[in-house]
Amino acid sequence: MSSEDGDVEEQLPKSVVDEVKDELPKNASEKHVREVLQRVHQEYLKTLVEPGEAVGLVSAESIGEPGTQMTLNTFHYAGVAEMNVTLGLPRIMEILDGKREIATPMMEIYLKSPYNKGKDIRKVAQSFKEIKLKDVAAEFLITPDLNIDIVFDAENMKNLGITPAGVLKGMKVGKGITVREKSDGLSIKPKNKEGGLNEVYQLKEKLKDMYIKGIKGITQVLPVKRENEFVVITAGSNLKEVLVHPDVDAERTASNDIFEIMEVLGIEAARQAIINEVFKVIDSQGLNVDVRHIMLVADTMCSTGAIKGITRYGVVSDKSSVLARASFETPIQHIIDASLVGERDHLTSVVENVMLNQPVPVGTGLPGLITKVKK
Amino acid sequence: MDENIYVHKKVKSLVFQVLSPKMIKDMASAKIVTPELYDKEGYPVDGGLMDIRLGVIDPGLKCKTCGSKLKECVGHFGYIELARPIIHLNFVGVIQLLLNSTCRECSRILVPQNEIDKHKQEVESMEKISSGGSIRRKAIREMLSGLKSVSKCPHCKAKQGKITLEKPTTFLESEKRISPVEIRTRLEKIPDDDVQLFGISPKAFRPEWAVLTILAIPPVTMRPSITLESGERSEDDLTHKMGDIVRINQRLFENINAGAPEIIIEDLWDLLQYHITTFFDNDVAQLPPARHRSGQPLKTISERIKSKEGRIRHNLAGKRTNFSARTVISPDPNIQISEVGVPLSMAMKLTVPEKVTAWNMAYLKKFLETGPEKYPGANYIVRPDGKKKKITDETKEASLEELQPGYAVERHLMNGDVAIFNRQPSLHRMSMMCHRVKVLPGRTFRLNPAVCHPYNADFDGDEMNLHIPQTEEARAEAEILMEVQNQLISPRYGLSVIGCTQDALAGNYALSRDFKVSREEAIQLLASVGVSRLHAIGSKETVDGLQIFSAMLAPDFNFTGKSRSGEPFIVKNGKVTEGKIDKSIIGEESGLLLREYHRRYGGKETIALIDRIYHLGINVLDKIGFSVSLYDIDLPADARSRIQQVLDKAYAQADEMITLFREGKLEVFPGRTAAETLELRILEILNKARNETGKVVNEFGIKNTDILSMVNSGARGNLLNLAQMAACVGQQAMRGKRIEKGYRNRTLPHFMMHDLRPAARGFIRDGFKGGLLPHEFFFIAITGRDSLMDTALRTPKSGYLYRRLANAMQDLKVEYDMTVRDASKKIIQFKYGEDSIDVSKSEYGKLNVSRMVEK
Is B103 exposed, middle or buried (0-12, 13-18, 19+ CB in 10 A)? Predict the structure, then answer.
């Protein structure tokens, strides 16, 4: 494109310019391109937000209003091919509350070629799954001399693709505990037997959940065909380890655990994840909400560099105004805390001014008129 | 005109501080010494809780402090001197923190000097980045976290005991109680510099103020007594509570002076502590709440402030207004969409103030002459000093004489006045829109059924509210920002919230399907919706539906879109050349044609268009007739047998699965148990079968019936509903599973235990028309109840989510530099939505680039 329309192009958001490029015929003349851009620019100016617009409230309305129409406790259940995932209002609340522990952590793992075309798909999927000692064992026995004998389940082991040696290698036992391989399993000798049966029993229970192989935290795997490639869907999430797995296409692989994303990929990724997840839920309910509103919510939650929930402990507690905080929840505590510090409320936001019967500093409450006073 | 001098003052900021004992004494106008309220004559006792120096609540009396009358005097504080210091409940946390972190001997903070200096610097540097309590509090917590293990004071080397709090207000040091006197002396000794380290400003709060020696008595105006019909006086809860405090305090004084034994004094002291604690908060977990004689808990200070019904949320953040009305709504398609029908009786009560000028004198005098009894009259005149004068038959003449420029006349509501109309819950900004008044007979508000959608209103007894703005500014804002035509495009998704529904949709759909009438009839139809641009229908003798529809559009209107079925819908130069008129063209929340019309011709024209389309649809139905009957969903015999075949097959497949499962031969899905797999497989089979029956219904039955055109136009229902009526209702699901609860190991007594077959787990094989079997009816009742509960549980949850969102984001706004910032000017977004596009000005959230490229 020529340098003359550079001006106009710069003033347009990139997404719009890209769209123009897509829509224009390949052989469009320069003059034509310029004309179109001019037209687009003119229309763009008409659609701009006006300064003073209370966009926050509009976004809150846009997400809150369809909330009443959302169904509670819907699970995704499209036949066989999907995992159970919390959807609907509970999921939205979970995200916006900034909950660390989510009800159904889940990953969508995209694979590198040739696995994404279905090669050994079951095996690859299986390799992500966390295998615990109890998955390969048929029996845990406490012998009369207070040793623990573990009998392997040969068939399960074959299915999971693991050998007795592999089990031994994967096991990490504490100091003083000796593990011996037997013909059909393991024999484990505890450190000291003074604790008696009780302690050995506890050790046995602990051994059942001993990590052997796979990626920690991933409890279920399900290979699924998406359009023309295979994707592994998992229950449980562990981004850190999955992303470095050699067979994984790290660029497209995603988790639904927002805090994990923040820890592994940073706050910007977390912001995008919030947008994606909220949008996914709203979309799945057949509701119609513009992304901009969700973006604004995500930005409010992430603007400090850490994820803050929309709760009295999160975003609201960061407000500069005492009265705004007090009008939300636990007013007495807020007023007491403010009085200790001798806090000053500058009345810059909406509620305080409502309380004092003054014009609010948004929209038409913003501009003032200055006139010369006749002397 | 006389020159009014307006003094506009604005509160710039508020400071929060704790009242010091000295401050309480200074601001008090009376010392309270006796629990008695009134003497024998019923006159307030001097030094009692109702002392007239504390304000007036009786008409006729004058305040002894300020000399003003009832309603003019805002009230004055008093105080009582406490015989012994009392711990203030709300400061217990701070007291504990301070006691635990300072030395018991020298009262210095238990942090060595070098660390204090380091910490001071840190906090200062952090405050530079961002102000606000939370960061400070965090830093302090960090500094103090190491204190728990300190057992020796770094300043005077005294040994430290741990101080624990026995809730609510008792402090223990190594299991021994510390008296409030001791606590107070310790707190007094903490130097100001150390107090600051806790993030406390010594100017706003000296630690010892947390232990009360003097209690402020709130003015009587905030605790008025009520005189009952019997002439008896009933005092406010706060007065009761303070009576207790003063009484016990007096007894404590007497006992101390008389040298009573320590135990009695201690007991009274504890009792005083209890009363003062409950005076501040009567909902403390460890204390029994103070009660009335009737057993109902007293409402003390905390309860007055707290929660939804408290002062803050109820009275301060929620305002009420005069000049409003509320009544039942009913539909009236014959008024404009932007109008609201107001009952005459209301129009005579609601008024609009009009300023009298030399030019409208005569006009306004006419209202005065009519008086308040006849319409359109006036109810009040307002003098320039703000005094209102009622107009009655007697005062009418005098008022007429008196009226001159500068006065205002409060005249009755008239057609064309501006009103704000609202329906709760006000979930979005379209729940409160501005309408023009249309005074109508009757007793209900009338609204055009097309605006039901933004209000989410129906006419099963809904009530709505109306408010008449009283100032020019308010009217201007209402007109410009809130009028229906300016609220058409939802900021949620960028499409029109108003459109056609139900019969209007079905009617217009009929127009676009083989609709041919004679020219005369077409003119009739167009005339009925007020279109006079008759040449648009051409000069042929027969006119088709699209031509009639086109006649309503602007002659230079162009539009390309898609109907629901995916067919193109094209308007060229104001003529519909092809396509079906259905929900995605003219419906609410989806009408793309409406969106484009709005962009080109603005809200007013669009509203007019919607109104015309709406009427046309109804009139078309009127003309051609539209009825739905049971026969519409009749299926031919072969279709019915096909459906039975499909279902039989599915049943057989399911049975096969169950047998496999019972024999343990079922192939299990990875990560699932056999039982889960079976459920999934059966669900899959049944779903497939039901869909197939739907297909059969579509293929064979229900062709060219009105019920189908209802579905296809998007007016009501969908194909699934049709299949449910005609063929098979399908699986009833609870929480994504087949129904499994009920009796032991079975759903209903009609089945054997452990029966897993489709019919026993909520699959409904019959259609609604064919009729349900008793057990099928039960299954529908089960899921029906379940979904009812779902709605009931969801509403409060989503309401709370909404409240939180609104509270968190209400002060975000777009600044003049196009960034989005919060109240403390922190940037949230550099460009709103990354492109600064206002959704309510966009087309479905986008800039329609392709249209501009094509042009």
Answer: buried
CATH 1.10.132.30 in chain B is located at 631-788
Least confident of B55-69, B183-197, B528-542, B757-771: B55-69
* pLDDT confidence of residue A164: 74
Nearest-angstrom CA–CA distance, B683 and B737:
8
Which DSSP string corresponds to A303-328? TTSS---SSTTTGGGG-S-HHHHHTT
For chain A, give the number of residues: 375
Quick check: B809 and A59 CB within 8 A?
Answer: yes
- Whether B822 contacts chain A with CB within 8 A: yes
Query: CA-CA distance, B366 to B376, in Å (whole number)?
Result: 9
Looking at chain A from residue 126 to 155, which residues have their Cβ under 8 Å from any Cβ of chain B? none
* Domain covering A319-363, topology: DNA polymerase; domain 1 (1.10.150)
CA separation for the pair B574, B558 (Å, rounded): 6
Mean pLDDT lowest among A68-72, B97-101, B295-299, B766-770:
A68-72
How crowded is residue B77: how many other Cβ atoms within 10 Å of its Cβ? 19
Cα distance from N-terminal residue to C-terminal residue, chain B: 58
**In this structure, what token pair is assigned to residue B293?**
């004689």
Chain A residues within 8 A of B809 when measuring between CB atoms: 56-57, 59-60, 296-297, 300
Q: Which 3 state secondary structure label does DSSP give B651?
A: helix
DSSP letter assigned to residue B386: S
Judge: B801–A355 Cβ closer than 8 Å, yes or no: no
DSSP A32-83: HHHHHHHHHHHHHHHHBPPTT--HHHHHHHHHHHHHTTSPSSEE---TTS--
Determine the residue type at B339.
E
Chain B residues with beta carbon closer than 8 angstroms to that of A300: 808-809, 812, 822, 828
Q: Which among B582, B507, B588, B586 has a CA at the least distance from the CA of B548?
A: B507
**What confidence tier does A337 reach under pLDDT thresholds 50, 70, 90?**
confident
Task: Determine the CATH number of domain B631-788.
Answer: 1.10.132.30
Q: What is the DSSP string of B410-469?
A: EEEP-TT-EEEEE-SS--SGGGEEEEEEEEESSSSEEE-GGGHHHHT--SSS-EEEEE--
- 3-class SS string, B50-69: CCHHHCCCCCCCCCCCCCCC
**Cis peptide preceding B425, ω within 30 of 0:** yes
Q: Which residues contact B579 (CB under 8 A, 6 or more apart)?
A: B512, B561, B563, B567, B568, B569, B570, B585
Mean pLDDT within B682-702: 85
User: What are the start-end ranges of the E strands in A214-319?
Assistant: 220-226, 229-235, 254-255
> In angstroms, rounded to a whole number, what is the distance separating the alpha carbons of residues A33 and B141?
61
Please give the backbone phi and psi of residue B202, each rounded to the nearest 5 degrees, phi first: -65, -20
CATH class held by domain B502-624: mainly alpha
User: What are the φ/ψ torsions at residue B531 (nearest 5 degrees)?
Assistant: -100, 125
Query: Are A348 and B824 within 8 A, CB to CB?
Result: yes
Q: What is the gyration radius of the CA atoms in chain B, in angstroms?
A: 38
* CATH 2.40.40.20 given to domain B324-482: yes
Query: ipTM exceeding 0.95?
Result: no
Q: Give every CB contact of residue B375 below 8 A, 6+ residues apart in sequence.
A: B344, B347, B348, B412, B439
A370 close to B (CB below 8 A): no
Q: What are the tokens at B379?
A: 């109810």
- How far is the CA of B587 from the CAs of B372, B394, B499, B558, in angstroms? 45, 56, 5, 18
Domain boundaries, chain A: 6-47, 131-213, 319-363
Q: Which of B601, B590, B422 is nearest to B496 (CA)?
A: B590
Give the list of residues 6+ apart from residue B673 with CB closer than 8 angstroms, or none: none
Collect all residues with Cβ–Cβ distance below 8 Å to B341 and sequence separation of at least 6: B332, B335, B438, B439, B440, B442, B444, B445, B446, B447
Q: What is the dihedral of CA A239, A244, A247, A251, to 10 degrees?
A: 70
